[in-house]
Amino acid sequence: MRSLNLFGVWDYVVLCIVLLISSGIGIYYRFTGGKQKTLREYLLADKSMPIMPVAFSLMASFMSAITLLGVSSENYTFGFQFIVINISYGIFTPVAAYLYLPVFFRLQATSAYEYLEKRFGQTARLAASLAYTMQMVFYMGVVLYAPALALEAITGISQLAAILSVGLVCTFYSTIGGMKAVLMTDVFQSLLMFAAVFSIIICAGIEQGGLSGVWEVASRYGRTDMLNFNPDPTERHSWFTLILGGGITFLSLYAVNQTQVQRYLTVKDLKAAQRALWLNWPILTALSLSTSFAGLSIYSRYAKCDPVCAGEINMSDQLMPYYVVEMMGHIPGLSGLFVAGIFSASLSSVSASLNSLAAVTIEDYYKPLYRYFRGVELSDRLANISSKIIALTFGFASLGVAFLAQYLEGVLQASLTIFGVVGGPLLGFFTLGMFTTTANERGAITGLVSGLSLALWMAFGGPKPPLKKLPVSIEGCDYLFNNKTVCSPINTRPDSEYFWLYRVSYLYNGVFGLIATCVVGYVISWLIDKIACTEKRPMNPNLFIPPLARRLEKQWETPLKMNEMKSYEE
């Protein structure tokens, strides 16, 4: 084992400055403007945000520390094929912008799940809202735990310190500063994420004599293949799985997810929201591509001495911080800047989730219960105070999950899989409502349960064949006695002996969940209507995608207010 340059004084100074700046932004927005006194300002930033901060926030909301550590590790371990997923972002951005987004903008509801109540009923709304809430609480805990797990082994920062520092700072500025603070800190933290990734690429370029040197080493050892066009769904990564599976994942996050829908509603109108979504695409792609190349950059250093096989680190997710402290630890403050970027990735994801969970809880649970028991509507002042308390509560809940995560075996992979598995069926749930007039509540809920069941079965059923990792070597590790060992996974059991569904690419979990939800939901809805001889009634065009809405307007002449029609056409 080798001793590394662990954190020094200047590294802690840089990290503390970043955390203080994030907290300072929350304090600034607490005492400026409307001072977060109304629910509209606290949850929707008074619908006055510029496009650029919203675009950055759309990217940062789901590009967490798990992404930075995981995407670089993916390219190091499996090769550069993963970058094809960025094509799917460009293909599905217009689908989200021009089909799904107009529906939410016409509704103008703080909770995206209010749509489901208007389209199907209260049970549908609560089912989707509950699934989202449980998903995000667990996800936030893992977002806090994952970087702490990696950074503890490399930098000397304890899990306790890492979890508490990120969790408490994030909870603090999200609670007092509201959506404006979240959006502006996302911009600041996004820049730090880019700085962390580019510091690795620049360092590797200097070591290898240029970026071409990095590519040459990766190519020599089989890391640059991007031409896998195999349509077999059991192929882990191919153009088909990455574009289709990645596209459905993108839609589940950017078309119907509460966290993103709430961000769209912080701008003044639909066109501004669509521009923000389009601007998000190159920002998201730039970070994805640079993080992927950072994985190759790290590999160029360890092509002949893999730190995992050499016993220097325990898991591949620790490769990025390990590289930083080994290669840049001697430069005062640079390791601190990198760790600040990792922490910022966690901050941006957790803060986005806290604000959105507060919105969902207020709109989907607290207001209806208050109305039921008190017989009056919840006042804006009380709702605003309650939303801050709720955000604070969810922040502490995520801290609890983060600490509990260390006792659950495989929680990181399991929770990330759940995050994708729930997204596909929820996308199908919204799609049934927006794209068809046949779907009804009982059919749609049956479809949602079917989609979730199938996706969860695919994700967690087993046994599954081991992943086919590209070979790594320790023949260049001068400090090891046995320097001729090649560390490669060995699987003596053919993949064909495993159940087919367990061999399907993980990226298809959401696709299968989406298809099952839509097919089962539509068929059951159709059968219910036929058996019950339900008479077709006029439906509000505002609840459907624009092409279908225009057809319904002509067919049923639904009485719409002029301002609603104008908003719809915009």
Brief overview:
This protein is an all-alpha fold. The chain has helices at residues 9-30, 39-44, 51-60, 65-78, 85-107, 114-119, 122-155, 159-208, 211-220, 239-254, 258-264, 270-302, 319-328, 334-374, 380-405, 411-435, 441-460, 500-503, 509-532, 546-556, 562-569, and strands at 472-473, 486-487.
Please characterize this protein's 3D structure.
- The structure is a single chain.
- With 570 residues, the chain is an all-alpha fold.
- Helices cover 70% and strands 1% of the residues.
- Strands 1-2 form a two-stranded antiparallel ribbon.
- Helix 7 (122-155) packs antiparallel against helix 14 and helix 16 packs parallel to helix 19 (509-532).
- The radius of gyration is 24 Å and the shape is globular.
- 52% of the residues are buried.
- The model is unreliable at 558-570 (pLDDT under 50).
Major beta-sheet overview: 2 strands, antiparallel
Give helix and strand order, one letter per element, not per position.
HHHHHHHHHHHHHHHHHEEHHHH
* Average pLDDT level: 82
Number of domains: 2
Q: Which bin fits the share of residues in helices?
A: over 70%
Uncertain runs are 558-570
CATH architecture of the largest domain: Up-down Bundle
Oligomer: single chain
Radius of gyration: 24 Å
Strand order of the largest sheet: 1-2
> Within the CATH hierarchy, at the fold level, what is the topology of the largest domain?
Sodium/glucose cotransporter
Number of helices: 21
Shape, please?
Answer: globular
Task: Say which CATH homologous superfamily of the largest domain is assigned.
Answer: Sodium/glucose cotransporter
Q: What is the straight-line distance between the termini?
A: 63 Å
Give the class from helix and strand content and strand pairing. Answer: mainly alpha
The percent range for strand residues is under 5%
Extended strand count: 2
